[in-house]
Each structure stands twice: as C-alpha cells, then as structure tokens.
Amino acid sequence: MVIYLGMQKYKVALFIGRFQPFHNGHWYSLTKCFELAENVIVGIGSSQESGTEANPFDFELRKRMIETLAGVTRKVEVWAIPDVFNDVKWGKMILTLLAENNYQVEEVVAVGNNEWTNRIMKQVGIDVYESGLYNRDELEGIKIRQMMKVGDERWVKRVPENIVKLLDKYGLPRKN
User: Fold this and answer.
1) pTM for this structure?
2) 44 and 94 in contact (C-beta within 8 Å)?
3) Contact 31, 140 (CB under 8 A)
C-alpha cells in the first residue's frame, strides 16, 4: 500500500449512513474518504425505508443528494444497503457487495463514526477510520428533520447548498 500523508492509501473508502438528509457532518466524513482512497462508495443504509419520521426520504432521493454533491468534487458509487437485522448476515452482505464489484477486503477502509457499523466492519476484516463527529450538536439528522418538519429555516445552514436546492426542486415545503 502507498503511504499518503502519514496514512494508508486504499483503493476504496466505504461510507455508510442513512443520510436523512445528507448534512454537513456527512460532507465532512465524505471529504475524509476522498483523502484516504482512490474510489469512494457511499452505502445508503435502510435503503428500503421511506415515508416515516426517521426515514422521510426514499432511496432514489438520497442517492440524488449524494450524486449532486459528488459532482462538485468527484464521482462516487452509491449502493443501496437494506436493513438486515442480524449482524453476521449484514457483514456478509457487505462482503458480498464488495466481492461482486471486484473489491478485495484488504483494499477497503470503512469511514465513519457509527459504533455498530464500525464493529461489524472490523469483524469482517475491513479497516476502519473514524473521521470524528463534526459539529455534532447542530449536525444531527433527527434535529435537522425536526427543523424541516416545523418549517425552521435554520436547517438550510446545516445541509450543503446543492442539497437544499435539490430538496427545493422536489417540493419540500419552505417558508420564504
């Protein structure tokens, strides 16, 4: 492996989250992915969920959010990661997705801060890089979703501008 700024350079960084919505904290972690690897895969967790308070946005809209942002920097692959309520099966599913896309475990680093995800990544032999939580008090999905729900415009400062524009196109109600 190549040494890159004192860190290993991987073939691919895997960043998994629900992205409900993709916010500036996610953006911070995504930029770490770009620093660590040649290629980036964003796995959209709970991909089968939508229309609920915790998961209001469907997979296709979340995918568009990420693709809109990635175009600002560079292309990323976006994968659907459905819920599997069994740690061993979920880990095997991730390994299968990587293998189907010709990635070897030793070429992959998982980037993120979710303890459950990181634990499973380590169990299946994937290196983990904890990017750190960026401005967590403000950049927490549940808080942003609540602001959106009640029309509190402060949410727009917590989400990348391209995503705000995309959500506007999709008719998210906003006060002017």
Assistant:
1) 0.88
2) no
3) no
CA atoms within 13 A on the CB side of 147: 18
58, two tokens:
């469907």
For the chain, give every domain's residue range. Answer: 2-168
Q: In this structure, how many other beta carbons lie within 10 angstroms of the beta carbon of residue 93?
A: 15
pLDDT tens track for 65-109: 998 886 666 779 999 999 999 999 999 999 999 999 999 999 999
In the three-class reduction of DSSP (H, G, I as helix; E, B as strand; rest coil), residue 8 is classed as strand
102-124 pLDDT, tens per residue?
Answer: 999 999 999 999 999 999 999 99
The answer to whether 18 touches 46, Cβ cutoff 8 Å, is: yes
Candidate CATH numbers 3.90.1150.10, 3.40.50.620, 3.30.1380.10, 3.40.50.720; the one for domain 2-168: 3.40.50.620
